[in-house]
Amino acid sequence: MRPPGPGEGVAWITGASSGIGLALAEAHVAHGWTVAVTARRVEELEALSLRFPGRVLVAPADITDPAAVRAALAPLPPIARAILNAGTYERDTADTFTAARLARQVDLNLIGTAHCLEAIMPTMIAARSGQIGLVSSLAGLAGLPGSASYSATKAGLIALAESLRFDLRQHGVGISAICPGFVKSPLTAKNTFPMPFLMEADAAAKAIMRGLDADRFLIAFPEGLARPLRILRSLPYGVFFPLIARGTRG
Ligand SMILES: NC(=O)c1ccc[n+]([C@@H]2O[C@H](COP(=O)([O-])OP(=O)(O)OC[C@H]3O[C@@H](n4cnc5c(N)ncnc54)[C@H](OP(=O)(O)O)[C@@H]3O)[C@@H](O)[C@H]2O)c1
């Protein structure tokens, strides 16, 4: 399927006030797109719009509120590409696991993303064009130590993208599951454990744009982490568990 280009509508990026989302907005502007940016911190979004006059449409919303998402989208021009990136990570293990922590991450990472999806899919389906990227994580490809709740939400996003892809292809709409490894951002700045292959947000944004421009379904990077993880994932659990445990011991 031919992915949309900058002349065919705006790129809508959620979670664009910092980290990967901010870098994605900058990269899209650099490639000729007009971007619509959503997050809760309006002043961060406005600062971005001042840097790129006329190229950044500020559309603030808390994506856990479906009415706020609809209100933010209402004044925007047609969306050609939506990158649903807003999300959070709270570390947990079997010792610290609580349903409340899982619910907070489900509310934002899964249900918040679903509010965005339900707001844009009908228009894209009717227009028989458009492209959607769901920002999951390498931690969504497998349940990794220290991310029980987070992995559950990010695996859910991959399953959501896989299932929707069957239908969306019939309607001429593209969808991708985006699985970054460790990326420098306010989210990872609080991590105290080793983060192999830690990359800059700009490099992550470029990898995501390359994947979307090529209409790849799974956009998983960096290669040095994504490839071994995908191989391990396909092995029997008798091999998977000890190798992952050894590889993640900090
Ligand atoms: N950094 C990594 O290593 C890494 C790896 C894999 C996947 N990811 C995923 O990449 C995405 C971006 O993460 P990041 O590392 O760039 O973290 P970040 O800098 O903390 O960015 C998170 C973004 O989400 C927005 N957000 C949070 N709650 C929101 C809400 N209720 N409504 C609307 N926007 C909300 C934040 O803006 P406001 O606070 O202004 O609302 C912010 O713009 C997340 O989905 C994360 O899980 C990150």
From TrEMBL:
Superkingdom assignment: Bacteria
InterPro entries, per database record: KR_dom, NAD(P)-bd_dom_sf, Sc_DH/Rdtase_CS, SDR_fam
Cell inner membrane listed as a keyword: no
What does the similarity note say?
Answer: Belongs to the short-chain dehydrogenases/reductases (SDR) family.
Q: Please state the span of the N-terminal signal peptide per the UniProt entry.
A: none
Location of the Ketoreductase domain? 9-186
Q: Protein name, please?
A: SDR family NAD(P)-dependent oxidoreductase
